[in-house]
Design brief:
The protein has nine helices and five strands; from the N terminus they run αααβαβααβαβαβα. The chain has two domains: about 1-50, no CATH class; about 65-185, HUPs (Rossmann fold). By secondary structure, the protein is of the alpha/beta class. The chain has helices at about 1-25, 30-40, 40-50, 75-90, 100-110, 110-120, 130-140, 155-160, 180-200, and strands spanning about 65-70, 90-95, 120-125, 145-150, 175.
Amino acid sequence: MKTVIKSMSGTLKQMLDALAYADASEHLSGLEKSRILAEGPGATVQQQKVRTEPEKSEDSNNGRRVALYLGSELPREVMDYTVQTCARLRHDLTVVTFESRNTASSLLEPFKKMLEEAGVDMKLAVLAGDPLPRLSHYLRTHPEIAFLACKDVGYLGRCYMNGTLQNNTLPVPVVVVASKREAGENLDQKENQQIDKAVVA
């Protein structure tokens, strides 16, 4: 009788193991299933616990972020570019500023709805100290940041536009976004130069 019960217990265990294999197979590739079968039931249970956790969808954020350097003003076209780029790359946004938290929050307030609609999470990093070294240190210690965006009419943007900063000054690529006002000024200057040349000719 004991032998029969023991045999039934063994059979029941095999059935439960089979159910575990079947459940795990829904979450594993063919290669992973072959490896687990070779490792034995003990490995199957452990692997099953790991693999049955919900996987991230393709639309979920990948942990990368875009940094935006915020000065005393924030042109809408700069924020439009930054948010659209974040949404396209599925990156979140880190706003880096040396302004006060209250000032930065006031500048960002009009764009909260845009960020929500684009599905972009934003966090604010308020820094202090010498701007360039402090900014460089922050970017270097935050490897999740893919690149830094800044407006062309601000301190950082003008430094890059005027060539006073080298491309490798900061540890990430820098994108200088032209505002409409600056673009208009450049266009007027170009037209005046063309007129001057035409008169000279």
